[in-house]
Predict the 3D structure of the following.
Amino acid sequence: MLEAVRATDPEIRRRALERLAAAYWRPVYTYLRLHWREPEEEARDLAQGFFVALIERDLAARWDPSRARFRTWVRTCLDSFVADERRAAGRRKRGGGAVHVPLEAEGIEDELAGAIAPSTEDPDTFFRREWIRGLFTGSVRALRDELRAAGRETRLRLFERYDLADEADRPTYARLATEESLDIAKVGNELYAARARLRALVLERLRECTSDEAEYRAEARELFGTDEP
Amino acid sequence: MNRLSDEALAHLRDVTERPELPGDRYEIHERLGRGGMGTVWRATDRELARDVAVKVMTLPAASDRERGRLQREAHILARLEHPGIVPIHDIGQLADGRLWYAMKLVRGVALDRAVESVSALPARLRLFLRLCETVEFAHVQGVIHRDLKPANVMVGPFGEVLVMDWGVAKVLGEPEEGEPAAPPSAGAADASGGAATDGGAATDSTSPGTVLGTPGWMAPEQAAGRAHTVDPRADVFGLGRILHALVGSEPPRRLAAIVARAEASRPEDRYGTASELAADIDRFLSGTAVSAYREGALEKLGRLVERHRVAILLLLAYVVMRSLLFLWGDR
């Protein structure tokens, strides 16, 4: 996808940017809400404007893969964009122009209720974590859709109860087995299958958001290979 | 859907990385460490009822070539049977394509941490001698480590010294990617296998121009991207850097000279082998002249006095006693 973002054909570039906006919408919006502390409407407006600017002003064509990862570049551009917008005397209402970026906004405010950005955190670390959260959130949604479509309700329930819970609320395998009338080995197998599929979905999304094999592998190593937030 | 909490996110990252080894021989426990290419887990080998370390690559190999590198790293470990090198037990592939291998679980601490509790210089140097022995053994087997640094040296509870992470090791005489076949260098007795890559600082390519190793610890010729042309003296440089870190900022002159020779910029100015370096350390410990330092007459006298201090003190005591007795007898 990132190759296409820098394509010379404007139509290919435009389609790639729309897909990119969909992939980055969540971390960008969360960053605006929590890091820049923009109100809901303003954040929505800024996010829309940012992606429109990426497309209409061809900002993405200026990205140099040899100097920064795309994620870092997006965050830097976003900071500049917000600063510029704040400097400007009145923000124009966006979204009604020639380009409309489909933003998956539904439910995100509920998700953000009570969430706060650590005041001392480096913006890049914060954006990176939100980007990872977005990657996993989208993948969990996709996994949920797949399991429902395949009639794997038990597997989905086990996954949600065990892997999406905070540690304090996480039941034991034995309890899950009793409550679901399964043996413990079956619980383990179902969870293993769900996790394996989730991993594959995360990696698929990661591949979409990276420019080449080297960046994909570097990001994957950071995603799975470090304790960094 | 609720926002994934930081805790749930960390859990998901953990469980999607946690390996499920085929069969039920190994039970995976906690993560022991992470490197550039993979993660090391503690595991129980149920068949042999012992704990082992399992190294799992972060991703499936991108190509047969990359797969070959990990296999070669395993083969390098398998061929280096030495008390200072971690033995490998098993190798395999996960259902999702990730490669793994099981090896001896080392219970110890990295050299830099281990020496915090070893303040005496001779004790530190004796640890270093054991490290030199292991590196020399590998060289004789035709293997160059290429990433020697304190973090890659473990010291066990009984003072055993183990050289870890052979991920960027090179087998002499075996061409690497992009490198023409070359005859084995001096000291290489055997050659088979190749280079594998791992470790935080290592890249996953060994083509000419690629920098392999860790900045600050690797030899200048390696840092210049000539990793495929290095010989055992690159490891001598790494040993020199480790020695430098062990002896502190103001070592005795003769020891400083040994350090300087080991970490000389030009390979031809260094010790030719790890055993030559070890021999000089041994000489330093026993108080004899070291090859790296030409001493003056006074320094030589001072060293001899230092070396034979006890005998000289006894002799002096004897002479003083005899003199006193002589004077006493005269009265």
About this structure: Residues 123-149 of chain A form the longest helix (27 residues). The mean pLDDT of chain A is 81. Chain A has ten helices and no strands. Residues 1-117 of chain A form one domain.
